[in-house]
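Morning. Coffee machine broken again, so started the prediction first thing and wrote up yesterday's gels while waiting. Chain of 159 residues, entered below exactly as on the submission form.
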Amino acid sequence: MTGPRSPVIRVFDCHIARERDGELEFLLLLRSSKKIYGGTWRMVGGKLEAGETAWAGCLRELAEETGLRPQRLLAVPYVNRFYEWKHDRINDIPVFVAVVQDGQDPQLDDEHRDFAWLSLDEAVKRLPWPGQREGMRAARALLLGDSELQPFMEIPLDS
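Came back before lunch.
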């Protein structure tokens, strides 16, 4: 019998938002068919490199997968958590929201074959995982309703 397992942060979720005509839109990326989760819509995400913080990995993957540079990056007060039966582990996935300037579209890498800027309602309909949907809802709530919390959650981009 083994003892309790501590959660290890291996991956992250990064929602990308922009304001257009006074409304928030979220960017979703359609995975290439030859990649894991092929044919599904997702936000930016990825595995951390050795010694990398989750927020630094978020910025790295955002640049690699989209070429977008955020104006702001915030840690969302939500953790996407699910059990992965193949590895008998619980994944605790920190969630971030990157705010980009309107008028920018992603430059897709080979992991993705399409993108869409969508309202929250349309975006959550496309996300397959419940934790991803809840993370996006929490990101929107942070950006629109929790202005007192934002200073504590904002990650300085010159760090």
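The chain has a mean pLDDT of 91. Going to sketch it on the whiteboard this afternoon.
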